[in-house]
Amino acid sequence: MPETSESDERNQREVWAREVVARLHDDHAPLTDGVPADYIPELADVDPDTFAISVAMVDGRRVGAGAGTHPFTIQSISKLLMYGLALETHGREAVMRRVGVAPTGDSFNAILLDEDDNRAPNPMVNAGAMAITDLVVGDSIGARVDVVRSLYERYLGRLPELDHHVWASEQATGNRNRAIAYLMLSRGIIEDRVEETLDLYFAQCSVLVTCDDLAMIGATLANHGVHPTTGEQVVAPEVVRDMLSVALTCGMYDYAGEWVFTVGIPAKSGVGGGILGILPGVGGLATFSPRLDQFGNSVRGVKVFEEFSAQFGLHLFDPGRPWRPSR
Ligand code: DON
Fold first, then answer.
1. Cys-Cys with 56: which of 15, 172, 216, 327 at CB 3.0–4.6 Å?
2. Which residues line ligand 1 (CB under 6 A)?
3. Of the residues 204, 239, 272, which one is the last residue of a structural domain?
4. Given the CA of residue 77, which atom of ligand 1 is nearest to it?
5. For residue 319, is it within any domain?
6. Which stretches within 122-210 are classed as H helix?
7. 181 with 233, same domain?
């Protein structure tokens, strides 16, 4: 008897989610504010109108609207997965020696270190992300790219492809990242294989994913690191806790404070146009739309998250969370 009411409730949630996702897609499709990233020339080569919203629940159910299977580069969303890999491989203490957890309030590519502790501020800005990439084990770029691809494989359920044009475009134009990386070398924060680590960082950003993939990554993290459909323990629960903590405080760059206040969902965005949100114990919510605001976050994506969170009372500190539809 209780089982029936539990599954009734899950079915009811799915119906609500389907209605809300379809409505949010229709409501926000006409919004054309913002511009796709063009500081990496190849990134500008997208259809700016492509739009997707995807939800994956911890029980593996999926709901979506729009171009959920359209591939795009994961960009900075990779930073969250790579942080988890570093924590699992090297442990918290070793990682914290190189990268802290303090939000900066500065842009993602700020040339800024934590001077007091001689480390990068946090793993979600480029400095911290490259210090994390430096921790990928392997004696050649090929071996290290394989480590990264197999990390993605566990989350995606398939070995990912890289967009080689975007990868090459980042290599050719990434001089600001080069400056940050060499500054970290001069301070002893990263090892003396800077060009290789930069190359690997550009590779991790150039991995192709879909909005449906991002939602399932979110559902895996929401499910204590267990992939809802493969059943694999992709990442340890205590590592997920650390990943979600920095996603909540630093995942949306200099918009992070407003994001926590209005949306209250741990999330990570990328300049490719994706946003990945994690609803602990419930599932993953993802959006894809390449037009970005001044912070580098997807304009439609931010609006969809704001409304989805309000509609279902999904702010982490909402008294009725989870799944109290406010209508
Ligand atoms: O470092 C860069 O320029 C990119 N490969 C990643 C940037 C990114 O996605 C930052 N995001 N919002």
1. 216
2. 75-76, 108, 126, 170, 177, 205, 269-271, 296
3. 204
4. 9
5. no
6. 126-134, 141-156, 164-173, 175-186, 194-205
7. no
